[in-house]
Amino acid sequence: MTPKIDDADFYKSINRAISEKRHVDYLQEVIKKYEEYKKEFEMIFTSKNLKNSVYKFRVTYLLKKLVWRDVELFGEQTFLDLAETIIDSMGWDNDHMHGFEIPEQQRKPDPFLTKSSNAFFAPGWEDDPHPTFKTDEICIRDIDYGKLPKLDFIFDFGDEHRFYIEFEGNREPERKEKKADFPRVIDQRGVGPKQYPEYE
After folding, report:
1. Cβ atoms of residues 78 and 69 within 8 Å
2. Up-side HSE of residue 186: CA atoms within 13 Å toward CB?
């Protein structure tokens, strides 16, 4: 079963406002964009991947040369697990929001919603102007990597630590490997910048 958004309250409140003739044009545009958002994710979701496969990703930090991590996760683990592993591997505290985004070259630009139009975010992200998927709701196995082999990742929307994530393949776990062994960093190069550098 692929991820779904519980959007009943969203539709109820927005349709009530439209029936009361409040901000009708804007709210109709919000509904249109939300339907497009869901459709975009429906195109990249799959229920065919195995939950017990091990998935490997190359995670490259974009604001400093030669900083990357190779990360493995079980298919039933989530993108929140991937985000926390990336943040921890850089030596940072997980004290800011994060999000994954479909790269611009794989989607249409959307000035109406900017960052939120083709992204899914950390739990607790404010759903404005419409609901979004959260990283703890999407499992690694839920994505069809034949259609979406690359993703962008951002941590801390103030400092904007940006990463490029590329799917490198999946495999069956070895007999000695257990879910508790994952997620894990299996290779890495470079040191990330200090999260809070001291400025003179």
Report:
1. no
2. 13
Q: What is the pTM of this model?
A: 0.90
How far is CA 46 from each of CA 3, 168, 169, rounded to the nearest angstrom?
A: 9, 18, 16
Burial of 168 (0-12, 13-18, 19+ CB in 10 A): middle
Domain boundaries, the chain: 8-189
Q: What's the pLDDT tens digit per position in 109-141? A: 444 434 446 899 999 988 889 999 999 999 999
Using a 10 angstrom Cβ sphere, with 0-12 exposed, 13-18 middle and 19 or more buried, the burial of residue 95 is exposed
With a CB cutoff of 8 Å and minimum separation 6, the contacts of 187 are 69, 70
Cα gap 15→12, rounded to integer Å: 5
Beta bridge partner(s), residue 74: 54
- Please state whether the peptide bond connecting residue 149 to the residue before it is cis, i.e. omega within 30 degrees of 0: no
8-189 placed in CATH 3.10.290.30: yes
Q: Give the chain's length.
A: 200
